[in-house]
Every structure is written in C-alpha cells, then in structure tokens.
C-alpha cells in the first residue's frame, strides 16, 4: 500500500472495475504484468488485506480513525469493547501496516497509515447499503 494519495477520479476509475489500459492494470509497452492484472503478484497480499478487514471491530476502528489519532481507551469506548480486545485488534492492524502507533508517556495513540484501508471499508459499507436498499445507481461518495 503506497502512502502517496491518488485523486478521487483515479480511485473511481479503478473501483468501477474498468481497465482502459492506462496506468496501473495494463501491460503497457513493457509487456510486464502490473498491479491490477489478474496475474498480479499483489493479489495474494490483497486477499490478506480483505481478510484483515473481515472483522466488525477492525472495520469500526478504521472508520473511527479517519478523523484522527486516538488512544486505545477512547477507541475501546467508541467500539464498545475492552481496551485489551481493542489492543489485540490494533496489533493485527499494525502488522498489516494499516495503523500507526505513537507513544506519548504511558499512552499509545493510533492513527491510519494512509487512506486506503478506510476507503476499502467505506466502499464495502456503500456496497452493503446498495445491496440492502436495492438502488440500481447509487451515488459515488468519497470521503
């Protein structure tokens, strides 16, 4: 996961599932596979990312951290879990390089490494909303 942000239009292009042969996802002139090709070496890691996100508490943590860093205790209160449980989830998210920890005295503050994991979570929620509401043309929403 790169730390460099992409414009919303670039995300929209990729999220729409259409590859026009430009940029990522095309073989280009070199003939080598790139990140969005079906034989991409990133697919295995992407599956691990989705596996990491397949947990309600971790999804909630990522959504909450969109607004900025928070200590474990406050995160625990906001997700309705014990600090010990939230710490275990945060350790997994740290190993997956989705969150960053910063110690200040005895307190540890957590923040998102970048916007990618939170974007995946928000898009999954929009997909769920679309599936439940049955709207054939949901609006594109980007945070």
From TrEMBL:
Superkingdom field? Bacteria
Q: Cite the record's Basic and acidic residues compositional bias ranges.
A: 7-30
- Tell me the InterPro entries matching this sequence: ArsR-like_HTH (IPR011991), HTH_ArsR_DNA-bd_dom (IPR001845), Metal_resp_trans_reg (IPR051011), WH-like_DNA-bd_sf (IPR036388), WH_DNA-bd_sf (IPR036390)
The HTH arsR-type domain, residue ranges: 38-132
Q: Which GO terms describe its molecular function?
A: DNA binding; DNA-binding transcription factor activity
Q: Where is this region: Disordered?
A: 1-37
The reply to whether Nucleus figures as a keyword in the UniProt entry is: no
Q: Which SUPFAM superfamilies match?
A: Winged helix' DNA-binding domain (SSF46785)
Ordered alphabetically, the record's keywords are: DNA-binding, Transcription, Transcription regulation
Which SMART domains does the UniProt entry name for this protein? Answer: HTH_ARSR
**NCBIfam families of this UniProt entry?**
HTH_metalloreg
What is the official name of this protein in its record? Answer: Transcriptional regulator
């Amino acid at each position: 996961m790169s730390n460099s942000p992409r414009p919303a239009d670039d995300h929209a292009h990729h999220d729409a599932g259409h590859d026009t042969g430009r940029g990522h996802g095309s073989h280009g002139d070199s003939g080598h596979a790139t990140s969005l090709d079906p034989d991409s070496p990133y697919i295995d890691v992407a599956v691990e990312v989705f596996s990491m996100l397949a947990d309600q508490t971790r999804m909630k943590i990522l959504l909450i951290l969109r607004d900025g860093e928070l200590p474990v205790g406050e995160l625990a209160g906001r997700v309705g879990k014990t600090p010990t449980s939230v710490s275990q989830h945060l350790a997994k998210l740290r190993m997956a390089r989705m969150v960053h920890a910063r110690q200040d005295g005895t307190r540890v503050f957590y923040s998102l490494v970048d916007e990618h994991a939170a974007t995946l979570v928000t898009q999954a929620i929009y997909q769920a909303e679309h599936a439940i509401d049955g709207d054939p043309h949901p609006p594109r929403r980007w945070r």
